[in-house]
Recover the amino acids of this structure.
């Protein structure tokens, strides 16, 4: 259904971004990658390319600022 980038963070790795596949069947999210180094730029490039290849939407609610409460993608 979509490729989504989501910020997360912890005390060991600081901020990072998970690249997720959002699927309808089976319904759920599947982690494709976790990016720690320059995460926003790397995930934005990879996510857009993958979404274009799969012909699905790409969603990254907060590409410029780490925000683990940014709105999530919904169909």
């Amino acid at each position: 259904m979509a490729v989504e980038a989501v910020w997360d963070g912890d005390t060991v790795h600081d901020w990072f971004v998970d690249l997720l596949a959002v699927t309808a069947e089976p319904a759920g999210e599947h982690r494709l990658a976790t990016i720690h180094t320059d995460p926003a730029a790397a995930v934005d490039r990879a996510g857009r390319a993958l979404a274009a290849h799969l012909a699905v939407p790409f969603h990254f609610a907060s590409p410029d600022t780490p925000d683990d409460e940014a709105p999530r993608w919904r169909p």
